[in-house]
Amino acid sequence: MLQAINLTKQYAPDAPPALDSLNLTVAPGEIFCLLGQNGAGKTTTINLFLGFLQPTSGQALINGLTVAEHPQETKKFLAYLPETVLLYPNLSGLENLDFFASLAGFTLSTDELRSLLVRAGLQAEAHKRPLGGYSKGMRQKVGIAIALTKQAKVLLLDEPTSGLDPKASNEFSELLTQLSADGTAILMATHDIFRSKEVGTHIGIMRAGHLVETLPAADLTANELEAIYLQTV
Ligand SMILES: Nc1ncnc2c1ncn2[C@@H]1O[C@H](COP(=O)(O)OP(=O)(O)OP(=O)(O)O)[C@@H](O)[C@H]1O
């Protein structure tokens, strides 16, 4: 479970807060999609949960532990997928996964590594090819497989489907739905209103550091969500 309590971040004393008193809870099995224009504070929110940033005030909690006070313990519950996953181009997908899994403390057999790549949607014929020849969507799938390795209780995603084609994006949504059904709490920053509606259980709309709307996704059509978004930002 993931919780923000009056979470605030001001990058400079004379600047307005990039995030202002955010209150948010993402329970196991929920997918909370954060929408908002460029600069609204979505990445700042994710970076506070990751412990990459210290809050100016308020708290980011993961499974009841404050990230600022328990940076190592909270990271054990987390997996993170950024917009662009940084991997080694000369290694294959399989070798990249093996390397990052071992960095995270997991020793997996080739069969286990392959089944994680398949679960992430990467076709078997690509597993042994150098990653330098992969498309963005294929690299993103290796990133997903790395995140799956940790069997994390909380998944943080920052525009993970940006640049993916509709089929890859759809497969990604299906995977998120499966993970949430297994009890993972998911927070995803995105610009994709349609996917948010498809995959999200809750939709939050941010404007200038404030979470101005929180909506249950089931109550809305994608068109209604788009109309609310356009009125809000
Ligand atoms: N390291 C930083 N130093 C100073 N200001 C920053 C820093 N990072 C972000 N900001 C500012 O904080 C505000 C929120 O930025 P943030 O990256 O969280 O927005 P975002 O909603 O993720 O935007 P995008 O959709 O473009 O990714 C912006 O005004 C941005 O300029």
From TrEMBL:
Family annotation (PROSITE patterns): ABC_TRANSPORTER_1, ABC_TRANSPORTER_2
UniProt keyword Transport, yes or no: yes
Database matches in Gene3D superfamilies: P-loop containing nucleotide triphosphate hydrolases
Keywords of this entry: ATP-binding, Nucleotide-binding, Transport
Listed GO MF terms: ATP binding; ATP hydrolysis activity
Upper classification of the organism: Bacteria, Pseudomonadati, Bacteroidota, Cytophagia, Cytophagales
InterPro entries: AAA+_ATPase, ABC_transporter-like_ATP-bd, ABC_transporter-like_CS, ABC_Transporter_VariousFunc, P-loop_NTPase
Protein's name according to its UniProt entry: ABC transporter ATP-binding protein
One Pfam family in the UniProt entry: ABC_tran
The keyword Acyltransferase is annotated on this UniProt entry: no
Residue ranges occupied by any ABC transporter domain in the UniProt entry: 2-233
